[in-house]
């Protein structure tokens, strides 16, 4: 009887102890915002052309998105590729949380209206600029990452 009680007690302690260990792992950091990263490789000697084009479209869209409260912020990183198969530009969009990626008809309507506003401001050159992207760059992929703050 003592062996059964002792065995049960030890098993219970083990499981309670392992749960505390699991929970303590979560205490290593606090969660921050969520970043959407797009990795871009521009062709030789056309990075400046691509950046000029996205300043009229992507940057204008991001500025309006920040003003409307649809995104927290955005950044662009530029640097030399590490090798022939690497990107040289990262387009970064900061969102408050993962819920920002859930379907939302109201948000979609705002985004559509913003796109129309940008198209109108470019006086017919929007489509030409978007089509030109295919000549200037290649998308290497996208990734979602959460910012964390170590404790």
């Amino acid at each position: 009887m003592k062996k059964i009680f002792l065995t049960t007690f030890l098993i219970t302690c083990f499981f309670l102890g392992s749960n505390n260990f699991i929970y303590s792992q979560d205490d290593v950091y606090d969660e921050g915002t969520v970043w959407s990263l797009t990795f871009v490789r521009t062709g030789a000697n056309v990075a400046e052309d691509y950046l000029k084009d996205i300043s009229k479209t992507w940057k204008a869209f991001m500025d309006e998105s920040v003003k409307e409260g649809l995104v927290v912020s955005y950044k662009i990183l530029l640097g030399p590729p590490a090798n022939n198969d690497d990107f040289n530009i990262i387009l970064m969009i900061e969102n408050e949380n993962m819920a920002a990626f859930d379907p939302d008809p109201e948000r979609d309507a705002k985004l559509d209206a913003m796109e129309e506003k940008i198209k109108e401001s470019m006086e017919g050159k929007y489509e030409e600029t978007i089509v030109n992207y295919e000549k200037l760059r290649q998308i290497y992929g996208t990734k979602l990452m959460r910012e964390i703050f170590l404790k």
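The chain has five helices and four strands. The radius of gyration is 24 Å.
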